[in-house]
Amino acid sequence: MTKNNPQAGSTFIKSKKHARPSASTLSAPAIAVLATLAMPLAYAGGVADEAPELQEGSKLPQVRVNANANGDRAIQGPTRSSSDKFTAPLLDTPKSVTVVTSETISQTGAVSLTDALRTVPGITIGASEGGNPVGDNLFIRGYNAQTDTYIDGIRDSGSQSREIFAIEQVEVVKGPNSALGGRSSAGGGINIVTKTARDTNFSNATVGLGTDKYARVTTDINRVIGANTAFRLNTMVHNADVAGRDVVGGERWGIAPTVTFGLNGPTRAILSYYHMKSSEIPDTGIPFNNPVTSGADVSKNGGGTPFTVDREAFYGLKNRDFRDTQTDVATVDLRHEFSPSLAVRNVTRWGKTGQDYIYTQPDDSKGNTVRYGTVWRRANTRVVDTKTLANATSLNGEFLSAGIKHSFNVGVEFSREDTDRGSFIFTPGTNNPLTGTSTCPTAGAATLYNCTTLVNPNPYDPWLYTRTQSPTLTTVETRTRAVYGFDTIEFSPQWLVNLGARWDDFSSTLFTPATATAGTVRARVESKFDTYQAGLVYKPKANGSIYLSWATSATPPGNDGGDGLDALTVQIQNLQPQKSRNVELGTKWEVLPGGRLSLSAAIFKSDMDNARVTAPDGTTENVGRKELKGAEFGLSGKLTNAWTVFGGYTYLDGIIADNGFTNTGTAAAPRWTPSPFNGNAFPTTPKHSASLWTTYAVNKSFTIGGGANYVDRQFANVNNNKYSPAYTRFDAMASYTLNQSVSFQLNIQNLTDKFYFDRVSSPHYAGVGAGRSASLMANLKF
User: Fold this and answer.
1) Nearest CA to 9 among 82, 77, 59?
2) Residue 594 in contact with residue 634, Cβ under 8 Å?
3) In terms of Cα–Cα distance, which of 349, 345, 347 is closest to 394?
4) Comparing C-alpha atoms, which of 502, 490, 514, 293 is closest to residue 413?
5) Is residue 65 scored above 70 in pLDDT?
6) CA geometry: angle at 377 spanning 138 and 422, to 5°?
7) Cα separation of 305 and 209, whole Å?
8) Of 284, 236, 155, 165, nearest to 563 (Cα)?
9) Average pLDDT, the chain
10) Global pTM?
11) Which of 195, 483, 547, 659 has the fewest Cβ atoms nearer than 10 Å?
């Protein structure tokens, strides 16, 4: 059994500019890796299905592993979080925590973080826009959580689309997250637990082929080298188009080696590196059919849902649009145990993440779609590198004082993030040369293909531009210092109190040099803030708990470090952090023999009292308020030895209680009145969402499974006049074990080929969900 390893470290990510290969073909390095990794297929009977491997150095050894009636091992779910900031088992933690295990990730056929999170209700995916970069734009309980993703407990900065080939599990913590991670939203955070070297030899590989040019190969090889050292290597090559979408798709490849020294001693060092590179054509979605309530176009009122066009309608340009990313992360993780009840840990992480892209936003804001049946091909561009360097030290342990047990974790964290953000320039520009603006009465060659038709747009229109990178870069430097402490106080086996507090010193500086058309821009924010969490836990039985908790969060100006919607500006630099608080009443139970099924339920209320809105004098001030009420239910585990389930339901009722003021007069004679959007629903917040994934072992060799995801209507703006309709999506899986070395798994995604929209948040378009696709994987052990 491995020892506990708290996940408290830091992140640094690095990327270089690189030439963009064709999105339809694999690059030379990727082809070489693919050919090498496919070699085990030549050996009959030499490979087996990949069993979920538990991460060395985490608390995953406490996972319950039982054998079903057919002798197969099945993970019931972790009893603790991977992070020592959680000072009690999950059953006794007064928070809503959902753990997506490697087993669930594998069974559902997930190949990205957003795929894996589809099984967690209450999380939605936002669309990209001018200020919102392409990547994992996540919303948790209605709040933007784009910057609230962590790797092994440390903030993962920089916009990106995260892979799962080196992920052990994903932990979703709902509710204010600032006491755990510092600056954050009120919705929660996502902690990615990575794979590290273990003290067991194994060699696993998965080779998959499917529809829509799907091809994927992953390997996971672990070797014990010496009495106390192990090496692990995870690799991935992936290529696929998006089912049902014209042109969209791409490739990626990655490698993640780790070495662990001191596997069985009191002192341990884990050295790891992560590299991933991708090239793709990003999706653009379908524009909203704008609601028209006055003027000449009122008879064309569309009601605010996306236009009814063919699912494959792609408004971008294949010869112009691209997205290249590269991520590199290196980590040194040191731990020493003074005794079984006291340990110290220090983590240093550095890296750089970057992406260059041009993607076409089908802009509906110029009146073209309603009036002319045309679309302006607005080019959103970005050239960005985010460098981070961080260090964290923590002390965790247990002690008795006056007969009362304390389980504690205290620590300090330091981080530095530097972002350089630029854009591309086109010659000639991207306006319609016939009008000199983005107005498109016609489409086609005369508009330089900057305008296209709403129905049957041609993504293969010739690109008539030259592209250069703008010499002007906006630089944002962000620094944080923090100290924190957590304690679970056990007064008796029935009563526990969980306390946590954190102090952050946050500063961020923005600089944009002067250009021919604009002067130098400088902005700076310095903010010190405290955040807290507290919870009372009552255990009527050893296998159950009832809790009441309270927690706060703080979102300072410039929260995203210059690479997202919450960027620092001159207008907001002097504002205070947005403050949120959450009250939650919940219960958790482990039922059925051996506690093989986990059940949880909670009701909660969240308020943001210091929201940034427009004040009566036209400035931006902390005078707004948001309110959220909700409830959720979750289950995970086994109903019988052969039947597993994972899923839940979330209800969210979020309103914008005070959205500030709006000018109903003129610029010269302003008249400030309360916002007409007061009382409207949160954008990107479905009132009802539910998911269920279940599998059944028919016999020792054959397992079938399926899943359903329901997401209610989602508004795309605070006006609440643009929205994506509700949808239900079904998936299916079947696996067959040939022998101890080979098994096969078939996944069918979107079984009914549902045409739905799975990404909003941009007020201009909604992202189209992938159509039906199928993939067949061979899971090998050699």
Assistant:
1) 82
2) no
3) 345
4) 502
5) no
6) 60
7) 35
8) 155
9) 87
10) 0.87
11) 483
